Amino acid sequence: KKKNCKVEAPNIFRLIEHFNQVSSWCQAMILSQRSLRQRAYVLGRLLKICFYLDRFENLNSFCAIMSGLRANPIFRLKKTFSSWPLV
Asked: Is 59 helix (H, G, I), strand (E, B) or coil?
């Protein structure tokens, strides 16, 4: 069944791929920063983007970014989340 998903439902497949790419991109943007301050800055920018996505009712991109922020590698960065309001 999974082999035919690209043929039978190409738009749904592309939607899922785009969601996963945005989610992975968010994780990579935060994890690629070396310092705590830079990670907190990127986190703040992504949360600001989420605010506007929610405001414009772009729920697919909003959920993609939020799922990237809720992923285990990001969620474990407790110092980044605790220092975010100070940046």
From this structure: helix
